[in-house]
Each structure stands twice: as structure tokens, then as C-alpha cells.
Write a structure and sequence with these properties.
Blueprint: H1 3-17, H2 22-29, E1 31-32, E2 35-36, H3 45-55, E3 66-70, H4 76-89, H5 98-102, E4 112-117, H6 120-136, H7 142-145, E5 157-160, E6 164-170, E7 185-189, H8 196-203, E8 218-223, H9 231-237, E9 242-247, E10 254-256, H10 265-268, E11 269-271, E12 274-276, E13 283-285, H11 286-291, E14 294-297, E15 305-309, H12 319-325, H13 335-343, H14 356-362, E16 364-365, E17 380-385, E18 401-408, E19 411-419, H15 425-439, E20 441-447, H16 452-462, E21 466-471, E22 479-482, E23 487-490, H17 492-504, E24 508-511, H18 519-525, E25 528-535, E26 538-545, H19 551-567
């Protein structure tokens, strides 16, 4: 049998097997929050086409990798999860049993699917909040019934009848943790947060794929855009850039409701669910126009298939909702958030000053763990930000965080970082004193805004080894210190900018050997947005807290400030005119193995 005959037989098999529509299987077998999982005929035609492209077209030898460029809350992760279970439990894939072979049952080869995220915590949250409830709510418990008896059945690895396997994992910075797996299909969820080398290494586990292009398998990249110039944007630019076009009921012409970088949608979308055709200006129902629409590529001969969509074409979204989210109407929405998460557009790099990719690629010490004790010969510098928030408890908007760094030449190594899991005044004092003893702290800087009483108490015990910090509005001369008051006045924007410059140049090093222990600090460092202000004709960058916590970043800037203070002898290069900075050692502390509340 020659290659052409084999290809013809495989094509006939595809046609026979895929008479089972993946969309029909999902609708008939899965539920969402106990309700019917309806896709067709409800203003979701755009999703129907993507389901079928991934589950059918991408599995063919001439299939292409897929990139989905989207806004927030558009059901993309739900779609990927539904396809996870379709591949596992539909009965289309897998090694036939003896009984099936006797009955002449035809199947495609067994399939192995990896649904991955950049970080462990994203994976754990996805499994807990989406995957497990989704699986356990399937009609007639079909997904659980298709699991392989005595096969692997953990949160992250599930084996199914026919030698099908589903892996839910994180890649980390390098993807090395996945080298022992093999996969035919990979869903890269939250694509905007992956480190490039992690993607490169992870796709190599598809070299023996039995589905899709030989040696490449099926790859689906989807996420919410962030900054321009990112790997996400470069990948999108390699795609055929498909936009969903609505069909006018009158003139029968197609038109996109939204194209990134334009505001034509404001004229097309009249109100609520009413739209106007840009060709004939006929008013009509948005949902009907969506259900009659289709995806139209805008680039020929591209290496990737690309789909762009946002909440605009979602059946539950009205124009009024979108307008209410706009920055000019909602003080809680920044311009970057609106562009990235609502419109589904890339924003300028200046608006997103730090990303997980930058830290992962430039700042990761892959073979270094956090230290439980400091060096006897290398001093550390401590930054402390105070707050009331404690994980697992209600109340409080910010954490109490301590970050320790060591200086190795011009490189700052993060030794450890803690959230102080206590609100108690005396307990916080006890923890900080223990950190001083355990880590050979030379100098600390702590926030005075919320923690003035805490700083005063620490200074009564540790003297000038603890300095308070107040914001200093002067951008041109951002650092000021008066020796008699034990307080530093420093410009917070210049402090943050200095930290980001060091990160971008690889001069701040994060201990990434156990990445899960430091992921929260990475997230804190990336929860900032940038703007600019003009002071006496000179332009300066300013930084605004993003949607997530940033207390770890603030504490890191205080640790860097402590180091700078010591090295510059109180922010002056004229060391001959400054008296030696007096340090009175505190009463020795007992070294204990563990202090509750410090982690």
C-alpha cells in the first residue's frame, strides 16, 4: 500500500468518525452550573466555528497552530476545557478494546492532551474552580465513567479508556518539568504570561504526536493581550488574523463589528443589542447577525490560524455595559485594562512596565531556592510594607510583606520574601526581630503610612537599623535624609522606576528553583501601570497600582532603598562630610526554627 492509498484511507476514516460533531457532543453531554450547555442558535456561532476548527481541522496532517487573541470573560477557557473532555470521553479516540475490534468499531489513535498554564497557582485554581466541577456535572457522569479503571486519577493527571490521557500542568519558566510527558494536543492557557523558552521546550513533547502535522501536533495559544511588542503580538502577526463578520439581513453583506485600533464599532452598535449595518444602515438584532455571520481571514498564506474576539459579540453584552467600563465613565478602569481586557487590544509597552515574561527571562535563578537563614558573611537589606490583609481572612486591602535582598556586586539577589500572616501588633514585631537575627540584616526601611506605630516600636528596639519611609514629591532630587529623625523621604515613582530598570537589565535575581514559592511576588511586581507627568518642563514616569496587590513590589523597593542608603552614606557622595552612621545593636534574640505567621 503506497502513501497515497494510506492518505485516502485516513481521509475516509476522518469523514466517518467526525460525523460525530464536537459541538453536538459537548451540548449533549456537558452542563454549565447545572444548566444545559447551549452553544448553537444563541448568538454564539463564532464559538461553534472555533470548536470545530480545533477538534477537526487542526487534527489533520495539514493543520496549523491556532492563536486566539481575545478580551476577558469570553468563555475561551471553558471552550478549551470542554474540548479536553471531548477528546477524552467522546469515544472517537483511543485504542479499540478487543470487543470493539470484533464489532468493527473505528477510532482515531489514542490522544494525549496537555492543558497548561504559566504558574502552579493558575493550574490549581483552574482545576478547583473549573475542571473538577465541570467534569463532575457531566450528564450521566459520562466523563468519570470513561476514566480508566485503576488508571491515574489525580488532579493533574487523568487516564481514560483507550489509553487517552489528560494532563493539567504548569510550565514554569523553562518547561523542563514537562520533559517526560508526551502530548498530541497542547492548550496554552493565559498565553500572555508564558515565558518564550517554556513554550519552546514544551512543544518539543509533541515530536511523536499521532495527530496534526507530523512532529508538531496541535497547539492552541489563547490569552488576553498585554503590551505591544510581546511574544503574543509577534505570534498573532504570524496568523491569518480572522475577525468575525456579521451578516446584514437586508443587503446580505458581511462586516466586522470590531477591529483592533479602530472605533467604528461605536457607529455600528446603536444601543443594547441593536446594530446598524455600515453598508446600508439597516437597524437589526445583533444576535441574529452574529448567528448568520462567519470568520473571515485578512492575511493569506499565514503560518498560524488566528481568531480575534472580545465581549462585543457575546450574547449577554450590551453597548451600555461596554460604555460603563470605559475609563472616562468608570474611575476603577484604567486605559490599559480597558484596552487589554475589554477591547482585546495590545497596549503600549510603557503602560505595562513589568511582566512575568520579563522577570522569567531576565531575572530567574533557576538553580537557587529561597533561603531559610542568612549568610554570616554577607549582610542583607530588608524592606517592609505594612497592611491588614491576611490570606484566608476577610478585611484589609493590602498585605504586610517583608523582602530581603543581598548585594553581589551590582546584582541584587532576593533571599526570601514573606507575607506576614498576622494582624497582631506584637506578633509583627516578633516576626521582624526574628528576621533581623536570622538573616543578618544590616539595614531595613519600612513604610510609615500604615505602620508608624510599628516603626516607632522597632526603632526603640533596633535603633537606626530600621528607618521609616515617607513619600517625597521632588522628582529631581528624589532622596532626602535627616539623621536625627530616622526617616527617609524618597520619591516612590523614582524608587519603582529604579527597581524596574534593574529587572529589565537582569540585575535583580529571583530564586526560581521552587517557582511556586515566589510566584506571588512576581505577580505583585507586575501589578503596576505607568503614566507620565511633567514637572517644570521635564517629563517623569509615574506608577499606579494595577488591579492586583503590589505590596511585594513596594517592600522590594524599600529593600533597595535600604541598600542605597548604606552605600551612599545617607544619599550623599561627599562621604567626608557625613558622620559615621551609628548602629546600636539590639539585645540578642534567641534563634528559633520557626515563627508562626512568617512564610
Amino acid at each position: 500500500m503506497n502513501a497515497q492509498e494510506i492518505q485516502e484511507i485516513r481521509g475516509q476514516l476522518f469523514k466517518q468518525i467526525f460525523s460525530v460533531d464536537p459541538v453536538s457532543w459537548v451540548e449533549n453531554n456537558l452542563t454549565m452550573d447545572g444548566e444545559s450547555f447551549g452553544i448553537r442558535g444563541k448568538g454564539r456561532k463564532y464559538l461553534v466555528d472555533i470548536y470545530r476548527y480545533i477538534a477537526i481541522n487542526a487534527l489533520k496532517p495539514n493543520g496549523k497552530p491556532i492563536v486566539i487573541f481575545k478580551g476577558r470573560q469570553v468563555e475561551a477557557s471553558t471552550m478549551a476545557l470542554a474540548l479536553d473532555f471531548y477528546f477524552m470521553a467522546s469515544g472517537i479516540f483511543g485504542t479499540p478494546t478487543h470487543e470493539e475490534m470484533l464489532a468493527g468499531v473505528k477510532k482515531l489513535s489514542r490522544i494525549k492532551v496537555l492543558h497548561c498554564f504559566p504558574q502552579d497557582k493558575q493550574t490549581d485554581r483552574f482545576i478547583k474552580e473549573k475542571a473538577n466541577p465541570f467534569m463532575n456535572s457531566a450528564r450521566d457522569d459520562i466523563v468519570n465513567k470513561m476514566k480508566l479503571k485503576n488508571g491515574a486519577d489525580t488532579d493533574r493527571i487523568k487516564q481514560f479508556i483507550g489509553d487517552n490521557s489528560l494532563f493539567m500542568e504548569s510550565t514554569g519558566v523553562t518547561g523542563d518539568r514537562l520533559r517526560n510527558l508526551s502530548a498530541d494536543v497542547i492548550f496554552f492557557d493565559e498565553f500572555q504570561d508564558f515565558v518564550v523558552r517554556a513554550i519552546s521546550n514544551t512543544t518539543k513533547i509533541q515530536m511523536a504526536s499521532r495527530h496534526g502535522p507530523h512532529g508538531k501536533g496541535i497547539q492552541v495559544y489563547f490569552g488576553t493581550p498585554k503590551e505591544k511588542g510581546s511574544f503574543f503580538e509577534k505570534t498573532w502577526d504570524k496568523s491569518d488574523k480572522r475577525y468575525y463578520n456579521l451578516l446584514c439581513k437586508r443587503c446580505k453583506r458581511y462586516f466586522p463589528m470590531f477591529v483592533p485600533g479602530t472605533e467604528d464599532w461605536k457607529e455600528i452598535w446603536i444601543r443594547e443589542q441593536i446594530i446598524s449595518c455600515p453598508h446600508c444602515h439597516e437597524l437589526q438584532d445583533k444576535l441574529q447577525a452574529v448567528d448568520n455571520g462567519k470568520w473571515i481571514p485578512t492575511v493569506k498564506g499565514a503560518a498560524y490560524v488566528g481568531f480575534h474576539f472580545n465581549r462585543f459579540i457575546h450574547p449577554d453584552t450590551t453597548k451600555e455595559l461596554i460604555m460603563d467600563l470605559a475609563p472616562e465613565n468608570n474611575p476603577l478602569t484604567t486605559d490599559r485594562e480597558y484596552r487589554n481586557e475589554v477591547l482585546g487590544e495590545f497596549s503600549s509597552g510603557e503602560a505595562t512596565p513589568m511582566t512575568p515574561q520579563i522577570i522569567g527571562e531576565n531575572c530567574a535563578d533557576l538553580n537557587r531556592s529561597i533561603s531559610r537563614v542568612g549568610s554570616l558573611t554577607v549582610p542583607t537589606y530588608l524592606g517592609i510594607d505594612w497592611g491588614k490583609k491576611v490570606d484566608g481572612l476577610s478585611g484589609g486591602s493590602s498585605y504586610s510583606v517583608a523582602v530581603l535582598i543581598e548585594a553581589h556586586g551590582d546584582v541584587m539577589k532576593i533571599v526570601n520574601a514573606f507575607k506576614l500572616d498576622t494582624r497582631g501588633f506584637s506578633k509583627k514585631i516578633e516576626i521582624i526581630e526574628e528576621i533581623f537575627k536570622r538573616y543578618n540584616v544590616k539595614q531595613a526601611v519600612a513604610d510609615m503610612g500604615y505602620g508608624e506605630d510599628l516603626v516607632a516600636e522597632l526603632q526603640s528596639r533596633l535603633m537606626s537599623r530600621v528607618l521609616g519611609w515617607y513619600h517625597h514629591a521632588n522628582y529631581r532630587n528624589p532622596y532626602k535624609f535627616k539623621q536625627h529623625d530616622y526617616y527617609i523621604h524618597a520619591n516612590k515613582d523614582r524608587m519603582v522606576e529604579h527597581a524596574f530598570e534593574l529587572m529589565k537589565n537582569g540585575k535583580i535575581r529571583f530564586p526560581f528553583k521552587q517557582q511556586a514559592n515566589i510566584e506571588w511576588l512576581v505577580d505583585h511586581c507586575c501589578s503596576m501601570e505607568a503614566a507620565q507627568k511633567i514637572v517644570k518642563g521635564q517629563v517623569f514616569n509615574t506608577y499606579i497600582k494595577g488591579s492586583g496587590p503590589n505590596d511585594g513590589l513596594v517592600a522590594l523597593t524599600y529593600a533597595l532603598l535600604a541598600y542605597k542608603f548604606v552605600m551612599t552614606r545617607g544619599f550623599t557622595m561627599d562621604i567626608m562630610k557625613i558622620r559615621p552612621f551609628q548602629v546600636k545593636n539590639p539585645k540578642p534574640l534567641a534563634i528559633t526554627g520557626y515563627v508562626p505567621g512568617m512564610r
